[in-house]
Amino acid sequence: xxxxxxxxxxxxxxxxxxxxxxxxxxxxxxxxxxxxxxxxxxxxxxxxxxxxxxxxxxxxxxxxxxxxxxxxxxxxxxxxxxxxxxxxxxxxxxxxxxxxxxxxxxxxxxxxxxxxxxxxxxxxxxxxxxxxxxxxxxxxxxxxxxxxxxxxxxxxxxxxxxxxxxxxxxxxxxxxxxxxxxxxxxxxxxxxxxxxxxxxxxxxxxxxxxxxxxxxxxxxxxxxxxxxxxxxxxxxxxxxxxxxxxxxxxxxxxxxxxxxxxxxxxxxxxxxxxxxxxxxxxxxxxxxxxxxxxxxxx
Length: 298
Known about the structure:
- The protein has 298 residues and is α/β, with parallel strands linked by helices.
- It contains 10 helices and 15 strands.
- It has a 7-stranded mixed sheet with strand order 10-9-7-11-13-12-14, with helices on both faces. Strands 1, 2, 3, 4, 5 and 6 form a 6-stranded mixed sheet that branches.
- It is elongated, with a radius of gyration of 21 Å.
- The N and C termini lie far apart (53 Å).
């Protein structure tokens, strides 16, 4: 039982293409393809055509890389193969009916207990009394995110009361938030993967970064449009060369990034290994987080 992808060797539309198949069932294939952000229109009877740029993310998400002959052999053995002759004779399988991923969801991580901070940072507010949660959500929306998902954990019920009431702002509680940032990231990406309509990208931000300005958000989001395929985008803000947040993760990378996340390092190791684009933002902010205790909500 496996989803397989072969080498990208077939030229079309100015790039090379590979095939994504299942050796078990079309249901397995469709589920994997949708989670990876492969458009429904890419399905052709027994396989998905996928561009070369997407192949590494598919492998990281669990697809097994094989040669073209091996892929064909296992597809034939599965009974799922539709031959070219059968296609000419009109044998077709209906394409899955799901909308293509589009837009960006801001993923605001605010689940930690804030041990060094003196309390959950989700409860913090500035000297004027405005909650950090409100400020970060506003920055994400003003910077171009279509919607925002706030990930809560420690004292979630109290923090939920501070989340702006908005039809485009939702909350998810990370069950294992005490394991660190990685647990919050996994919970957020899992929730996004199940959300309808599907988002093409997630912009991950932290609640304890007071310098999260809309201009920073817009600059990192621009990395999505420059790729030509938002679901394949992978970028992060840097400040004088120091990696920071926000981080842009295309849908094709969600499964792999979540699986690679550990402790408080989040998706950092995966971003480095997958060659995330670095977007310098030092002219807009210093990117620092806050660990000294401010005023917390009562």
